[in-house]
Amino acid sequence: QRNTNINLQGAQVTNLFGGSNVTGTVLNSLVNVTSGNVANVFGGNNIGGTTGTTVVNFSGATISGDIYGGGKMANVTGSSTLTLNDATINDVYGGGMEASCPTTTITSTNVTGKNIFGGSNVTGTVNTSTLNINGIKYDAIYGGNNQGGTTTTTNLNINSGTIGAVIGGGNKAESGVSNIAINNGTITDVY
């Protein structure tokens, strides 16, 4: 399948995937969430196959779980782009749950939540992550992965917001070079 376009404008969904389920290649996936209730959002595939490029736009809906730019257990081969506006979200990952994504970009504006990770969650390799933070309220922002895997280069641009901690690297995961630019905001700790 070349392209997928999903627009969630209502209803109740447990897991929303921009890509395929068990197998299959999706070149480009686009997920727009503007209303309704959803548990978890994945820009990529579920347990197999690959997605080339993913784009996730989230604003206004109710989410009880997390948002991933990548797949659950399936890799993204190109890039993921997440744009988050005016929402309350638990955790955000530029990469996948247990999957890789070469390049990730997260732009978050007026969002409240727990943690943002430029990389993946449990495992996965991310070459470059970029986070653009505008007017958010979060416990912590990590440039890298969460529990495992690696992120080679992380770029964090903090323009405003109230943040407990800004960490250039990962949580329990390795990272290489971290670049942090803080232009404004109220931040407790920077690492």
What key phrases describe this protein's structure?
single chain, 191 residues, mainly beta, 13-stranded parallel sheet, 13 strands, 0% helix
Task: Walk me through what this model shows.
It is globular, with a radius of gyration of 15 Å. The mean pLDDT is 96. Strands 1, 2, 3, 4, 5, 6, 7, 8, 9, 10, 11, 12 and 13 form a 13-stranded parallel sheet that branches. By secondary structure, it is mainly beta. The chain is built from no helices and 13 strands.
Quaternary state of this entry equals: single chain
Q: Helix content range of the residues, please?
A: under 10%
Biggest β-sheet, characterized?
Answer: 13 strands, parallel
Tell me how many strands there are.
Answer: 13
- The low-confidence parts are none
Radius of gyration, rounded?
15 Å
- Strand proportion: over 45%
Please trace the helix and strand order, writing H or E for each element. Answer: EEEEEEEEEEEEE
What is the mean pLDDT?
96
Shape: globular
Structural class: mainly beta
Q: Total helix count? A: 0
Q: What is the terminal separation in angstroms?
A: 42 Å
Summarize it.
This protein is mostly beta strands and 191 residues long. It is built from no helices and 13 strands.
Describe the protein's topology:
Layout lengths: L2 E15 L7 E18 L7 E10 L2 E2 L3 E2 L7 E18 L9 E15 L7 E10 L1 E7 L7 E9 L2 E7 L6 E9 L3 E5 L1
Parallel strand pairs: 1-2, 2-3, 2-4, 2-5, 3-6, 5-6, 6-7, 7-8, 7-9, 8-10, 9-11, 10-12, 11-13
